[in-house]
Each structure stands twice: as C-alpha cells, then as structure tokens.
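Supplementary Note 3. Input sequence used for the single-chain structure prediction.
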Amino acid sequence: MKILISADIEGISGISNKGQVVKDSVRYELTCELYIKEVNAAIKACFDAGVDEVIMVDGHGSGSNFFPHLLDKRVKLIQGTHRKYFMMDCIDQGVDYCVLIGYHGMSNKLNSIMGHTNSSKTMPIVKVNGREAGEILMNTLLAKHFDSKVIFLSGT
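The predicted structure, written as discrete structure tokens, is reproduced below.
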C-alpha cells in the first residue's frame, strides 16, 4: 500500500500568525521543527499500520521547509517548486490513500487562520463547478481523479 502525505505549514499545531510561517522571521526555525514533528507522527502511524511506502510532499511555499535530516528516513521526500501536481506531486504514481497534514481554510473566510488558496496574491478566489474551493477540496478532487482517497485531514 502506498500513501501520499501532502503537508502545509499554516495549519500545523501551534501556528497562529503569519510571523511564524515566513522564512525571514525569527520564529520560522521553530515552526519548521513543529512541522517536521507533526509530519513524522503521521509517517510513523502509516508505517505502524503496515503501509509499504510513504511519499511526503512539502506543500508550503517553495517546498523547502524541512530539515531532511530530521525527517523519518523511511519516507520519500518531495521538495522544491517544480512539481507536476504541486502539493499532490506523485499522486499519479499509484497512490492508494492520501493524508493531508497542516491544511488551512480557503481565501476570503474570516474564521480561517491565514486562509488562502495556493497563493492569495495570484489566486484570490478559486471556483470548481461554481463553488468556492480551497486547497482541501482541490486536492481531494485531484486524489479522486487518480483513484486515491483522502483518509485523514488535520489543520485549522
């Protein structure tokens, strides 16, 4: 069984403001440590459940928010900006199930901490079949397109 973990940073436990997720901020390194710990917990749960392969996509910003030496060595890490399916890279490679970690609300939602959809500057509102869609819906639909199912979601 193959699992794809797609992770974003804004919805990680303990994250509550933009100052924590910007690379130049003083608190960014601590944010990355929290990010890695939450993702490692999900990776461990997958392998403990008998999963054969785990692919982890760093879906925040430029995709370079992990200190690879702190990440569980059993996982295949996908980083960087040139990813075919962005936050869901490798979804087209026979992924059985998806786990979405650290996701956040979509743009224009007042009750969402740091709500946006991919990029609040270039994509203020995204619609799918006339319905506003955030990263959760977009990535769940992408998984469905490739006959994969989202089985876990965490975030704000």
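The chain has a mean pLDDT of 88. Helices lie at 28-48, 135-145.
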